[in-house]
Amino acid sequence: MALTGIEILKMLPKTNCGECGVSTCLAFAMKVAAGQVEIGACPYVSEEVKEKVGEASAPPVRTIKIGKGDNAFVIGGETCLYRHEKRFEHPTGIAVLVRTDMGEEDIAGRLKRFNELHYDRVGLVLKADLIAVNDATGDEGAFTSLVGHVQDECPDAALILMSEHAGCLAAGAKACGDNKPLLYSATRENSDAMAEVAKEAGCPLVVSGESLGDAAELSEQLQGMGLKDLVLDTGARTIRAAFEDHVAIRRASIRHKYKALGFPSICFPCKMTEDPMLEAMVSSVLLAKYAGIIVLSDLQGDILFPLLLERLNIFTDPQRPMVVEENIYPINGPDENSPVLITCNFSLTYFIVSGEVEGSKVPSWLLIKDTEGLSVLTAWAAGKFSADLIAMFIKKSSIADKVNHRNLIIPGYLASIKGELEEELPDWKIQVGPREASHISPFLREWQPG
Predict the structure, then answer these.
(1) Where among 314, 336, 366 does a domain terminate?
(2) Strands, DSSP E only, in 301-447?
(3) Within this chain, do residues 168 and 256 fall inside the same structural domain, yes or no?
């Protein structure tokens, strides 16, 4: 059961030193209880207290980290069944499979597509996350060689090492160094050996059962051996079975706090069909309900991109608007004579406006003002897109150094603040732009400095 802020406070030094970044121990304890900071942020609590508070405040689905540093991929940490209850914490990982029995050309193509299939959207870079390296032959040398090759070619990829042989997994994990891979997998036949490999390497381990119940029993057995970082594979290889198992895992962990199933899962659409389109459809279902990692046979843009968009929509926090960074965005190669437009940093507004400006073929400067993700009218009504704040942004930005005119185009819905803005920016002439984004292109084509 989660501890209250007062219960956590009793275990703190109560010095109010502020070294944790919070002014008082009481405020820090409240933040820990709310899950906003980790207990380890206090430099003076004992390891015993860290473990006690950490266990009590841990999410029902354990958080698992694969990889290292900035390139580490995190799954799990989920606390709800439905996104509207709170939010989903960590997006489903998308992996591509390479095997030791593949030809060099096939492997090279998959790794190349892993590196190249990146998409910029809503200020984010969307891409695949992991590479599953499968020991298909039992040859330890070939396996470690492929692991090293994958790391060299795709240094930002988190790795899944797959082998039936504990020795191969141990060698592969050693070849990864501090880039900790996910090890696949422990079964009833090899669980003791695989557990030793996972402990020695300090890596998370997949529990692979023949059914959901079998996976739960293996999970309990491995936890009893001291393993805490596990990932579940129920053995389901049809869409119906996988869907039912994933829903059951999430319900058991969230609703019933069943620790044997309190882990993220991995599934293999690549083993359910040989049809790439059907594989994508299976993946889309399991991405929504509730796979931690899905492994694809290959990466193709027309299949990967829709899955990435689906994931983006599902794992967007519904309580927080999507925003783009406050900045000056050059579009179509502007120069000192190009028009200057301003709008809010709500991502949808930015992409609609920037798309219309780009479509106009008119070189332009687009200023994005931070409005905390609110749209134009909402931000204006909330006092976050007012004349004084716009003026402050214009003055601190370097736009005056980029153009030889002083004309600023504001959204048509802000026409009422034109006079105030001219008072705040006496050197600038304020021009009221269109109300609708679809009218921006003709407006810019006819634009002349005032």
Answers:
(1) 314
(2) 327-331, 340-344, 364-369, 407-410, 429-432
(3) yes
235 Rama class: left (phi>0) / alpha (psi -120 to 50) / beta: left
Q: What is the pTM of this model?
A: 0.77
In a shared domain, residues 222 and 277: yes
pLDDT along the chain (450 residues), means of 10: 80 89 89 78 87 77 91 92 88 97 96 94 85 95 96 95 96 94 96 96 96 96 95 96 97 93 97 95 96 97 95 84 88 95 91 92 95 91 93 93 94 93 94 93 87
Cβ partners under 8 Å of residue 157, min gap 6: 67, 71, 114, 129, 130, 131, 150, 151
Domain boundary among the residues 286, 314, 342 is at 314
User: Total structural domains in the chain?
Assistant: 3
Q: Do 131 and 172 belong to one domain?
A: yes
Tokens of 257: 């706090």
Expressed as residue numbers, the domain containing 434 is 327-445
Element (H, E) at 125: strand 124-126
Same domain, 92 and 32: no
Beta carbons of 381 and 402 less than 8 angstroms apart: no
CA distance 119 to 105: 24
